[in-house]
Amino acid sequence: MVFGGLQAASPLGFPWLTPATVYAFGLTLIAAVYVGFSVADGRWTVIAIETGVASVFIVIAAVAVTGTAWLIVAGLAGHGLKDLWQQRTAFVANTRWWPLFCAVVDLVAAAAIALMTMTHRGFPL
Known about the structure:
Largest sheet: none
C-alpha cells in the first residue's frame, strides 16, 4: 500500500513535468515489466501476448498525457486487474510474488488518483 501511495505522489518528484506526464510514464514502465518477465519465460507466444498487452497500456498512457485523468485511473486499475489474472493463472512463468505486489500498488494508486480527481484536490491533471 505504501508503494501505491508513492506511485500516486510520484509527480512531486518531477515538478518540471505535468502530473499526467509522470503518471503516463509510470504506466508505461509498469506495463513493460511483464515484457521482461515474458522474455525471461522464453515462450514466443507469451512474449507476443505480453508485448501486445503492454502496447495497449502504452497507448492509454500516451492518450492520457493530454486527455482526462480517468484514463490514468483506468490504465492503473486495468493493469492491477491484469496482475490479479496473472497471479491466478501464472501465464508468465516465474513471476511468484510480483503480480500480487504489483496489483496492490496499481489498485491503490488508481484509487488515490481517482479520489484526487473526484474531489478536485491534489494534482491537476
